[in-house]
Amino acid sequence: MPTPPTQPVSTCDDSLWSALTQPCSLVIFGASGDLTKRKLLPALYNLLLDGLLPPCLVLGLGRKPWSDEDFRQVAREGIEQFSRQPLQPERWEDFQRRLFYMSGKLDDRQTFVQLKKRLEDLETRHHLPGNRIYYLAIPPTAFAAACQGLDYAGLVYPVDDRSPYSRVIVEKPIGRDLQSARELNAIFARVFDESQIYRIDHYLGKETVQNIMVLRFANAIFEPLWNYKYIDHVQITVSEAETVGKRAAYYEETGALRDMVQNHLLQLLCLIATEPPYSLDPDVVRNARMDVLRGLRPIRGKETETMTVRANIAHGVVNGVPVPGYRREEGVRPDSTTETYVALKVFVDNWRWAGVPFYIRTGKALPKRASEIAIQFKEVPQILFNANPHCPLDPNLLLLRIQPEEGMAMRIISKVPGTKAQTHPVEMNFKYGDAFTAPSPEAYERLLLDVMAGDASLFMRRDAVEASWAWITEILEGWARYGTRWLPEYPAGTWGPVEADRLIEMDGRKWRVL
Ligand code: BG6
Fold first, then answer.
1. Known catalytic membership, residue 127
2. What confidence score (pLDDT) does residue 17 get?
3. Which residue among 70, 96, 189, 305 is the one 20 to 30 A from 180 at the CA level?
4. Which CATH architecture has domain 14-172?
5. Rounded distance between C-alpha atoms, residue 161 and residue 167, angstroms
6. How confident is the model at residue 482 (pLDDT cuts 50, 70, 90)?
7. Overall CATH class of domain 204-381+399-405+460-505
8. In DSSP terms, which residues pair with 412 in a beta bridge?
């Protein structure tokens, strides 16, 4: 059992952040939407409770004709329902004083003229220096109007040391293929410098995901083994018990490959596969991740049939609740071929990973919510304890548990106590909750703070977004060309279709049961 740390480990980080996070205004476009209520406002509130929020105000902009009071009420409900730490009446007072709202349409330039005026008034009243962060929690179809409006009203400062900063945070999806991603990036580039753009992949903000770099590069024991000589294969699983529910309209146009693999799963793969960056400078770290994307072996044309499996939900039961088949969901076409599950066999063609398959899978309506990365090491030679070909030893396994359990585990072979030379696999377990008393912050807390501090390490750079879309687009084209009228199905509450089992079993391996 690891010993709890005697002093807070993040002390130096916290002081660094407070030095870098200058007072600012955060403008949320899409303020009457779900993301603002469920994630953004609770995240800001938790930063306040933890003493990390710099002096700032939050101005929500949305279509609903709300007052400041209405917005504060929604914020209160959001915090009561979704905050990591409970609402504390006296801290709430402090928080709600910072919240403001204005309604407006993004395709009306006057909205931005009014926004500028409101911001300037509020900033003067609150003695804020004019640093501004624009959070685009809006659909991609509205990105252009938001950028043009900000530009028109002179709300974006050039990048230089003398003026206050302007930064923009962009939520996914950034495109639905390479072409559309390029178009969206071009829209941002017309108004913002790349250094002002923070493209969110909220998986990179998860505590356990950040720990991948620490595990690899702050410990001596893993890195020497972290290559094709010792690793047999890697499995990355992001399993969700939820179905598409109210998001059917969005999901129909998206599917699991675009929704989860293009961003979250590929980023996890990058963190596992990256070379050690020579410093923690944001661009150095992002260059290292970028090299992994460049090394992905393309999956083209007919290869999509052997390297990928897609499927959708058939009627079943998840956690005791009946779930209809995907094509029966409201808003879904009865002959839909949008995948709710995808599994892929991926190779990174570089020296470190030559020949090592990365099996990745994600799906909705699976038996439980669980994300993990399993690194399976090669077998020991078939001599001594592994000499009996009828009962080979289980190879070592390193598990990085991302959610909901946060931690890691290592499977090793041990001797069973007694007089016989009998062996058995045992698990060494490390749980974040046991080792550290403080609960992990939510991804959005860390990410918002990083934008305030101007640290883009955990955000997607333009070239990375386009590289991952380039790779995904080839798969989409292969699917379109060699597609079937019906996708395989898996009953809700099971671990995916038999086709996905075959994908890994034909290599003599098995999916882990989580
Ligand atoms: C989002 C996807 O990006 O990530 C959703 O659009 C998915 O479909 C969600 O449910 C999963 O995030 P998390 O943090 O709950 O694993």
1. no
2. 55
3. 305
4. 3-Layer(aba) Sandwich (3.40)
5. 14
6. confident
7. alpha beta
8. 426
